[in-house]
Specification:
This protein is an all-alpha fold. It has four helices and no strands.
Length: about 110
């Protein structure tokens, strides 16, 4: 079976979700374009951007957690992790630190 650009089999749940996300974004952008009053259209475009920015932040945190998952499960060095995921060693370190930092913050809130 061949794989899609994301490494998942074509037609996977992730492919479907990503397609729905793209379609939803296109519908939202078209809705903003159709708002006749310019100030209201701008406000709604801002709201859309803020919503997408939130999703980008959540996706970045997810990506960092998945890098940490690889790092921990395979007991890799930072250099090996960087090579594995195609980033610089400094960026791999940032991803691991951000995950540890968010886990520490969560532990502080829970405890």
């Amino acid at each position: 079976m061949s794989q899609g650009d994301d490494g998942e089999p074509p037609g996977s749940a992730l492919d479907d979700a990503l397609n729905r996300l793209r379609e939803s974004a296109a519908v939202a952008m078209a809705a903003v374009e159709e708002i006749p009053e310019p100030n209201r259209a701008f406000e709604q475009a801002t709201a859309l951007r803020e919503a997408i920015d939130g999703l980008v932040g959540e996706a970045a945190a997810l990506r960092a957690r998945m890098a940490a998952r690889i790092y921990e499960s395979e007991k890799l060095s930072l250099a090996a992790l960087a090579n594995r995921i195609g980033v610089s060693k400094a960026r791999a370190d940032q991803l691991i630190r951000s995950t540890k930092s968010s886990q520490q913050g969560k532990a502080d809130q829970d405890g």
